[in-house]
Amino acid sequence: MRQPGSNVAGMELRQLRYFVAVAEERHFGRAARRLRIAAPSLSQQIQALERDLHVTLLERSPRKVVLTPAGEVLLEHAHVLLARAERARNEVRCADGRHRHLALRIAPAMEHVLDEPLRHLSGQASGLQVSIATSTDSDAILAVREDRIDAAIVWIRATHNLDLASTVLRQVPIHLAVSAGHRLATREVIPVAELAAETIVMFPRDLFLGIWDHMVGHLLPSGLSRHDQVVTQPDLINAPEAVLRSVASGHGVAPVAPAMTEHVPVSGIVVRPLTPPLLAPVELIWREPAHPALDTVIDRLADTGS
Fold first, then answer.
1. Tens of pLDDT along 275-285?
2. Candidates 3.40.190.10, 3.50.50.60, 3.40.50.300, 3.30.420.10; correct CATH number of 83-170+281-301?
């Protein structure tokens, strides 16, 4: 029986999942729909959690929900606790030895770049059961650091993240997407020297620091010619196709992996190789000690010729 005054020990995983949904949606109604429960029941569970912890987690108003400082702290820990609980559940389910479970995070566009090898990573042939989720490079690296996942596949990392164990799975050729009416659209190969005055459409730098600097440094080796030469928009974070739509609308040119354009066709653009060529390293990163199945993952994803 739970004793009066119990706090963290009284939390339930279900309550944490409910809290995370409200915190991410910033609205009880949307969170309830996401969880497929009644909004009054959701509110009661959050109130019970607040009573257990003796703190206010959320400031409520008719239009939105705002996290309190205590709520911000709990949200950070809740993500870790829920991820570890999910890992434990999966590992227990795989304890009969027939499959090994591995939690993997991948950066946007990896599902296109790695495609078939990634889709066949789980199954009888590999003996693996792999849970795959997509996130930004920065979130994936943080998840590895916090031991919420076993490994992540990211684009080249910034120098301050090089302390994590890693291996390069492959070097992906990066081409340039331009609008069909662009002056460079008729070129078979686009010289980097021709881009000095072009506007470059990119995803936000802070979420993909390593690959952002790698690409922009290659495309503009002499640096920016004006302060607004690189265009970044929040809606480009997890939608590589949004970059292509922006290019098709004439907002600039963009570096792109050819495999992505094959899976996400956007009309009104052409894609051309660069000279000198631009290669983007794809890295598998993990925290030591390594998961026993990582050797299998590396064997199946590295150097497949795509």
1. 999 999 999 99
2. 3.40.190.10
